């Protein structure tokens, strides 16, 4: 069984193959905090970047990490090599269909009456 490390070095891989990091995080750091870090470090020149933490999904070893978990709790899905670099993949969720429909409905609800 792997020993839980106090510090983990993590690099975030974006969908276009570019990276953010590496950066060192404590094992007590939550996944939500990691997402905030990704959001803060997101390259400004990239299109379709995340607007909020909810738009970001972190994937490690094929598992989507949950916001309420800490790195220590996710240790089974992370690097087992002490002092090794952990790679996490970052996926940005596009706006949901519900958000798109709401926007389209707002545009369609205008009154266009003509009185002759």
From TrEMBL:
<dbReference type="Pfam" id="PF13881">
    <property type="entry name" value="Rad60-SLD_2"/>
</dbReference>
<keyword id="KW-1003">Cell membrane</keyword>
<protein>
    <recommendedName>
        <fullName>Membrane-anchored ubiquitin-fold protein</fullName>
    </recommendedName>
</protein>
<dbReference type="GO" id="GO:0005886">
    <property type="term" value="C:plasma membrane"/>
</dbReference>
<comment type="function">
    <text>May serve as docking site to facilitate the association of other proteins to the plasma membrane.</text>
</comment>
<dbReference type="InterPro" id="IPR040015">
    <property type="entry name" value="UBL3-like"/>
</dbReference>
<dbReference type="InterPro" id="IPR000626">
    <property type="entry name" value="Ubiquitin-like_dom"/>
</dbReference>
<dbReference type="InterPro" id="IPR017000">
    <property type="entry name" value="MUB"/>
</dbReference>
<dbReference type="InterPro" id="IPR039540">
    <property type="entry name" value="UBL3-like_ubiquitin_dom"/>
</dbReference>
<dbReference type="InterPro" id="IPR029071">
    <property type="entry name" value="Ubiquitin-like_domsf"/>
</dbReference>
<feature type="domain" description="Ubiquitin-like">
    <location>
        <begin position="8"/>
        <end position="74"/>
    </location>
</feature>
<keyword id="KW-0449">Lipoprotein</keyword>
<keyword id="KW-0472">Membrane</keyword>
<keyword id="KW-0488">Methylation</keyword>
<keyword id="KW-0636">Prenylation</keyword>
<keyword id="KW-0564">Palmitate</keyword>
